[in-house]
Specification:
Layout (H helix, E strand, L loop, with lengths): L1 H37 L6 H11 L3 H11 L3 H26 L1 H21 L10 H21 E4 L9 E3 L1 H29 L1 H8 L52 E6 L6 E4 H5 L4 E8 L10 E10 H7 L13 E6 L4 E5 H4 L6 E6 L2 E2 L9 E3 L13 E7 L22 E6 L9 E10 L5 E8 L5 E2 L1 E2 L9 E9 L2 E11 L22 E6 L5 H5 L21
Parallel strand pairs: 3-12
Antiparallel strand pairs: 1-2, 3-4, 5-6, 6-9, 7-8, 7-12, 9-10, 9-11, 13-14, 14-18, 15-16, 15-19, 17-18, 19-20
Helix pairs in contact: 1-4, 1-6, 1-7, 2-4, 2-5, 4-5, 4-6, 5-6, 6-7
Length: 558
């Protein structure tokens, strides 16, 4: 049947074209990976294009991605880029079978886009960053042309359906196999070379011995940790600490070559430090809770760790910097990371006596790469996007009027003190606790002001005081618990906190943009109804013993 035969030939050609396009794209990415491994891994096309996409994504869309995908947002972005490339490759492959030059030109166009993205990155080092994309595109275009030529055996007289070509299945499959093997080898070699470039950074971290702090963290008071199943740990392990940033590839900085430069407006003595020079200075150790501005009410992007670092105010004073309240000309400190990220902090806040630092250690070990090794900045009381620069390499003093950092350019506020917030950790939303005494517990935070009260409300009832754990410092979160006499039925539990200034957590709901979410966290639970023999057989509920009682907040030690 001519019609069926023609359809089969068309379907076969489409499959050959799609395969050719996918193999060409695979070759392009593999060669680009190899060249990036030889030159600079961060210049790989997927990384630079992904960075360009992140930079041009509206704040609301980024916020949605973080809510929807959490710390997997970068993985989703990578997969999305690869999916788009795959669809484009299929189209170009099918086109290339009929018009090889047009198909190859399409592949080269993608290379141009990648090269432009590489040169436009804030951390671009020069024209060499465009080479991986260009080399990959050339390899992909050549691959598509070769596969298209191998697929075509000859030009034959047209049949009744207009068919004018016969297809060389054996020749195509042979060429495709060789291409796949070669591209795979190139990609694996590129990965190996990229890994080797990071080995120096890994070794520098493994060999780093942190000195003892000149100013150790005060001992955590007895009663700070509430022993309730399901409550968040007072100290967040490094592996569980949240990570929210724009880096598709985590920078691996060699501690031996790292430098920090302090310069700009009001700096009378520009300074440059090595890591060894920072470690030789008196270090302070502090427990500090960090919060991401993308954290929704009741969200997970908050964590508490013990940090070791250099007092930042001391470094600024040595450079001749004065705070605005003391006549200084700069009111904004712009921190820059090795990947080009910029964060702006108020100079007044950095130099007002709080424990702002350049951190080198986290929970007793050098900073993990994901959290800024070798050095990151911390300013207690400010959201991370205006204070917690990871992989920092430069501090520039300027003014808010003169410069807008990365996030401010994208619609976020210039100044962002952390809002008073509280969260119910247990019971979880839609839990079904048994009737009787149920321990409701969680954490509350109001960094640099402290939490002095937490209250719970069941449904629309009155607010009831929760038992507060002992306060570590005003810069850390505070655990709390409440014994609730749960009765059968559906119930909404709501929590609110009061900070050290006496301000009660607002009930007004706002989104994270532009300066952090507000509102009160609540969970809905259902207490099952118990009837019949089960009710008679059920033993009396035993109250959950608490290990802590409310204590007055103690003053913060310096």
């Amino acid at each position: 049947m001519p019609g069926v035969s023609s359809f089969r030939r068309t379907l076969s050609r489409a499959a050959v074209g799609a395969s050719a396009g996918l193999l060409a794209a695979f070759t392009a990415l593999a060669v680009a990976e190899l060249v990036a491994g030889l030159l600079r891994p961060a210049a790989g096309p997927v990384t630079v294009v992904g960075g360009a996409v992140i930079d041009r994504t509206p704040a609301a869309v980024k916020d949605f991605a973080i809510r929807a995908f959490g710390e997997n947002d970068k993985t989703v972005l990578r997969l999305g880029i690869l999916a788009v490339l795959a669809l484009a490759a299929i189209g170009l492959g099918m086109l290339g079978l009929r018009r090889r030059r047009v198909g190859a030109a399409g592949v080269l166009l993608f290379g141009i886009v990648g090269a432009a993205a590489a040169l436009d990155r804030p951390d671009a080092t020069g024209v060499g960053d465009a080479l991986p994309s260009i080399a990959g595109a050339l390899a992909g275009a050549l691959t598509l042309s070769v596969l298209a030529s191998r697929a075509t055996l000859s030009t034959a007289p047209a049949d009744s359906e207009g068919e004018a070509r016969t297809w060389n299945r054996r020749g195509f499959l042979t060429a495709a196999g060789v291409t796949a093997a070669t591209a795979t080898s190139a990609g694996l070699l590129g990965r190996f070379l990229s890994g080797r470039q990071g080995q120096g950074a890994v070794a520098s971290r493994e060999n780093l011995v942190l000195p003892e702090p000149f100013s150790p963290a005060p001992a955590v008071p007895v009663g700070t940790r509430v022993k309730v199943p399901g409550i968040t740990s007072f100290t967040t392990p490094n592996r569980d600490f949240y990570r929210v940033d724009t880096a598709l590839t985590v920078p691996r900085v060699d501690a031996g070559t790292w430098r920090l430069r302090i310069h700009g407006k009001g700096v009378t003595r520009p300074l440059t430090y090595t890591l060894d020079q920072l470690l030789a200075r008196p270090l302070m150790e502090r427990d500090i809770t960090l919060t991401c501005v993308s954290n929704e009410v009741g969200g997970p992007y908050v964590g508490n760790a013990r940090w070791l670092g250099v007092p930042l105010a001391d470094l600024l004073q040595e450079a001749g910097v004065r705070s605005p309240s003391r006549g200084g000309t700069a009111d904004q400190l712009v921190a820059r990371s090795v990947d080009g990220m910029t964060l702006g902090s108020p100079v007044e806040d950095v130099m007002d006596g709080r424990d702002a630092m350049l951190a080198v250690g986290m929970n007793g070990e050098p900073l993990p790469f994901e959290h800024g090794f070798p050095v990151r900045m911390l300013v207690p009381g400010l959201y991370g996007y205006v204070s917690a620069c990871k992989w920092i390499e430069s501090i520039e003093l300027t003014t808010f009027d003169a410069y807008d950092p990365y996030w401010v350019k994208r619609g976020w506020a210039r100044r962002a003190p952390i809002r008073t917030q509280s969260r119910i950790d247990t019971p979880k939303p839609f839990a079904r606790p048994a009737a009787g005494t149920v321990t409701v517990a969680g954490v509350a935070w109001a960094q640099h002001r402290g939490v002095v009260r937490v209250e719970i409300r069941v449904d629309d009832g009155p607010w009831q005081d929760a038992d507060l754990a002992a306060q570590d410092t005003v810069d850390t979160w505070r655990q709390w618990s409440y014994r609730w006499n749960a009765t059968p039925g559906g119930h909404r539990l709501t929590v609110r906190a009061t900070d050290g200034t006496g301000r009660v957590q607002t009930e007004q709901r706002t989104r994270t943009v532009p300066d952090g979410a507000s509102g009160r966290h609540s969970v809905f639970v259902t207490v099952p109804q118990i009837t019949g023999p089960a009710l008679r057989a059920r033993p009396a509920a035993q109250p959950t013993p608490l290990t802590t009682l409310t204590t007055a907040p103690r003053s913060k030690k310096s």
